[in-house]
């Protein structure tokens, strides 16, 4: 059974008098323990697709099933709750909160969530951040920041991990390291993960590859 | 609270600067309020602190004591009706001087009263001959108990029997005289200025009946001072509303992308609104408390020539009003926080 399944997703935006169809009849699925990559040129609808998967945006039509539950018509409040407890986000620029220490970045998520908390310090140590626990984000390198973001995404034990171009602000060596960490964690913890990227050098690390172009999504044979 | 305390800790200097601004504004408001109250007391405390509620003046005297002249037949009418709740009052603004020093003159106000009446301060006791009780304000002009002074106009000499509180009238210290003493000084001792009444009365045909506050408002200079000071205070509130709103807005505008990320991670909007309000509330409360302290210290050090008076009620009231103003200022920022779309976190837009 897939963790996340998209059926016939369409997303329209009004564009002056016309309607701009960003996503055209998209179907997609990702299973437990699977690390999927979505490739595509900029403007192809990658980000829009990710915001729909992440319950940040509702589709114009179609069904989004997360753990077999239809979330496509959730209210804003339900979406917020869902993002907190069921989805882990890794953003392009890591987007850590500047005034929280590294350990607090994770503890805050645990604080606002009603899920049983795991050991945040242990996760950070596992990712090689043991010496950075009481640093602020501005003291960290880009790679370290992205590792904190990964730890933050996994802290709440979500079933689905969504990564938005996690290598965009890193050099190729660090970028590869970061994706490797995501891959290992996904496989170890048996989570489903979707990564939007245009970095072809890391495609050997993922389990399945999808190509999006002009709003249409196709699976690419690996 | 979790986010608030950590953000305050991390951005100590930025928030200290904002707290300093709040402190300075609240302090200025408190200081001017204290001066306004001090001047009000200096202007009318000799009237304000009596238990009288109503004053009866001659018709057409425009609520001014010195324009009113009543005579014995008037007094009889009121005394027959109100007995011990009425008493006569005459006020004369004159000049006194030290007995042997004609160049050192002091402006004073004579209050001609019956020492047993409710207009007399508690410390005024029965005196004989030329002994009088005077306001403690005269102390700053170098007068002591037992000193003698001369009424500059009539040349009559009096001896200070004791001090009352700092009663004053139109910024002059008050000297309490009885009828007999007044006869030697005032040209027309048969008439008097007003009848003070301990009860509430609004109308009596043939007379001008006014409340105590109306009488105080018409003491020369009182309204002009008070209205300009309160205009300043009013503008200070208005200015601080806008200044704080702009500061809060800018500070929160810098954090918009953080708010977007926090929302994307699943933080409720209500939590963020609480965060912003707590932050602004904590800053305001600390600014207000420090200004309370500084105002208190200043009050201890103010010279007698700068009358300053601030009651605890006024102090707390001002503090509360200001806290309200500060939270109102945060409103604009809150709208912005509510409107942040978590979608901004995706696509590296920020």
Structural summary, described in words:
Chain B: Keywords: Cell membrane, Membrane, Transmembrane, Transmembrane helix, Transport. Chain B: Belongs to the ABC-4 integral membrane protein family. HrtB subfamily. The complex is a heterodimer of chains A (222) and B (350). In chain A, the strands form two sheets. Chain A has a six-stranded mixed β-sheet. Chain A has a four-stranded antiparallel β-sheet with strand order 2-1-4-5, with helices on one face. Chain A contains six helices and ten strands. Helix content of chain A is 31%, strand content 30%. Chain A has a single domain, classed as Rossmann fold. Chain A has helices at 46-53, 76-86, 102-112, 120-126, 142-154, 172-189; strands spanning 2-15, 18-31, 35-39, 61-66, 69-70, 87-90, 160-164, 192-196, 208-213, 216-220. The mean pLDDT of chain A is 91. Chain A is α/β, with parallel strands linked by helices and 222 residues long. Chain B has a six-stranded mixed barrel. Chain B has two domains: 2-43 and 223-348, no CATH class; 71-192, no CATH class. Chain B has helices spanning 2-10, 12-48, 72-82, 179-183, 212-217, 222-253, 256-264, 269-301, 312-329, 331-339, and strands at 54-58, 86-98, 101-112, 131-134, 148-151, 157-163, 168-169, 172-177, 194-197, 207-211. The two termini of chain B are 26 Å apart. Chain B has ten helices and ten strands. With 350 residues, chain B is an alpha+beta fold. In chain B, helix 6 runs parallel beside helix 9 and helix 8 runs antiparallel to helix 10 (331-339). The interface between A and B is medium-sized, with 34 and 26 residues.
**Poorly predicted sequence stretches spanning 5 or more consecutive residues of chain A:** none
* Number of H/I helices of chain B: 10
- Count every beta strand of chain B, where a strand is a DSSP E run of 2 or more residues: 10
Quote the CATH topology of chain A.
Rossmann fold
Trace the largest sheet of chain B across and list its strands: 2-3-8-4-6-5
Mean pLDDT of chain A: 91
- Outline of chain A: globular
């Amino acid at each position: 059974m897939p963790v996340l399944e998209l059926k016939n997703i369409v997303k329209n935006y009004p564009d002056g008098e016309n309607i701009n169809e960003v996503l055209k009849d998209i179907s997609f699925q990702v299973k437990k323990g699977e690390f999927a990559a979505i490739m595509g040129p900029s403007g192809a609808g990658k980000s829009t697709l990710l915001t729909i998967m992440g319950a940040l945006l509702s589709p114009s039509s179609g069904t989004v099933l997360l753990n077999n539950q239809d979330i496509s018509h959730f209210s804003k409040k339900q979406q917020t709750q869902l993002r907190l407890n069921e989805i882990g986000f890794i953003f392009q620029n890591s987007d850590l909160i500047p005034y929280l220490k590294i350990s607090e970045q994770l503890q805050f998520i645990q604080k606002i969530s009603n899920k049983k908390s795991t050991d945040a310090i242990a996760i950070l140590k596992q990712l090689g951040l043991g010496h950075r626990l009481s640093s602020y984000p501005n003291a960290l390198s880009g790679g370290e920041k992205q590792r904190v973001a990964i730890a933050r995404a996994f802290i709440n034990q979500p079933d689905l991990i969504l990564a938005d171009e996690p290598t965009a602000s890193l050099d190729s060596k660090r970028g590869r390291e970061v994706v490797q960490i995501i891959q290992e964690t996904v496989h170890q913890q048996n989570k489903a993960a979707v990564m939007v990227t245009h970095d072809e050098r890391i495609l050997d690390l993922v389990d399945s590859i999808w190509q999006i172009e002009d709003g249409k999504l196709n699976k690419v044979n690996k | 609270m979790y986010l608030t305390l950590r953000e305050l800790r991390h951005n100590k200097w930025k928030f200290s600067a904002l707290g300093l601004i709040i402190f300075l504004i609240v302090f200025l408001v408190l200081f001017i309020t204290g001066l306004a109250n001090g001047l009000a007391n200096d202007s009318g405390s000799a009237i304000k602190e009596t238990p009288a509620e109503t004053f009866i003046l001659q018709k057409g005297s425009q609520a001014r004591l010195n324009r009113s002249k009543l005579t014995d037949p008037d007094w009889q009418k009121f005394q027959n009706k109100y007995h011990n709740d009425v008493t006569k009052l005459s006020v004369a603004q004159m000049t006194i001087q030290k007995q042997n020093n004609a160049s050192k003159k002091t402006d004073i106000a004579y209050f001609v009263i019956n020492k047993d009446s409710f207009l007399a301060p508690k410390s005024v006791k029965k005196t004989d001959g030329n002994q009088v009780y005077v306001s403690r304000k005269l102390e700053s002009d170098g007068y002591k108990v037992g000193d003698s002074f001369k009424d500059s106009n009539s040349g009559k000499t009096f001896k200070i029997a004791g001090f009352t509180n700092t009663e004053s009238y139109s910024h002059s210290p008050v000297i309490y005289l009885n009828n007999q003493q007044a006869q030697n000084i005032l040209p027309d001792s048969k008439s008097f200025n007003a009848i003070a009444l301990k009860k509430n009365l609004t109308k009596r045909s043939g007379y001008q009946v006014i409340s105590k506050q109306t009488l105080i408002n018409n003491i020369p200079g009182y309204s002009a001072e008070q209205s300009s000071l309160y205009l300043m205070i009013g503008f200070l509130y208005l200015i601080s509303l806008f200044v704080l709103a702009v500061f809060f807005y800018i500070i929160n505008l810098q954090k918009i992308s953080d708010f977007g990320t926090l929302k994307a991670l699943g933080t409720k909007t209500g939590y963020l609104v609480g965060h912003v309000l707590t932050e602004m509330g904590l800053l305001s409360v600390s600014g207000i408390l420090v200004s309370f302290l500084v105002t208190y210290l200043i009050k201890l050090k103010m010279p007698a020539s700068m009358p300053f008076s601030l009651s605890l009620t006024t102090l707390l009231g001002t503090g509360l009003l200001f806290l309200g103003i500060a939270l109102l200022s945060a409103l604009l920022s809150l709208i912005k926080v509510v409107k942040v779309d978590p979608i901004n976190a995706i696509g590296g837009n920020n």
